[in-house]
Design a protein that fits this description.
189 residues, alpha+beta, 2 helices, Type IV pilus assembly protein PilN, transmembrane
């Protein structure tokens, strides 16, 4: 059996053309949508790859930073040790200098002088105290220290008679007088 078409040929062609263009439009929309979805996924993939690269880079920087912090901590510990050793060396040098000073004073000390104490004050002045058998010996000792060239200044702060012992017996004779002089000398290095 044969189909009979009562429509005009032009209207059939027009209808076919509209169907074809609507199919083309749907296919175009689908292709554009698919391309957009693929583009979005591609952008997300590239962004994810970039973020992973950045995370790896930051992890390496964190490792490097932690190594730097470790080195800084070790450096600070070594610096503290060096400072501590430096203070010990300074104290040792100060003790040696005091020892040399006392040794030099002992070498210059004449017969008749007995040093009973020495004290170093906060300003670095050395204060000697002692006894001398004669005032001239005490003054001579002070001058010897002053002219030694080892000290900036040597001052005899005090020199006084503390005892004079005379042993006189009934006949008017006896032991000669024995005098003792107390002295304080201040020495600045």
């Amino acid at each position: 059996m044969k189909d009979i078409n009562f429509l005009k040929k032009e209207s059939v062609l027009e209808s076919l053309s509209k169907r074809k263009s609507s199919k083309n439009l749907i296919a175009s929309i689908f292709a554009i949508s698919a391309a957009a979805v693929i583009g979005v996924f591609l952008c997300l993939f590239i962004y994810n790859t970039f973020l992973n690269f950045r995370i790896n880079s930051l992890n390496k920087e964190i490792e490097t930073y932690s190594e730097v912090v470790t080195v800084q901590n070790e450096s600070a510990k070594l610096n503290n040790s060096v400072n501590s050793l430096s203070r010990l060396v300074d104290k040792s040098n100060a003790i040696i200098k005091k020892s040399d000073t006392i040794k030099m004073i002992g070498e210059k000390c004449p017969e008749g002088i007995a040093i009973s104490s020495y004290e170093l004050d906060d300003n670095g002045a050395l204060k000697l105290s002692g006894m001398g058998s004669d005032k001239e010996i005490v003054i001579g000792f002070t001058e010897t220290l002053r002219t030694s060239g080892y000290f900036k200044s040597v001052e005899l702060r005090n020199c006084g008679l503390i005892s004079e012992n005379t042993n006189v017996n009934a006949e008017g004779g006896g032991a000669p007088a024995v005098s003792r002089y107390n002295f304080n000398i201040e020495i600045v290095q």
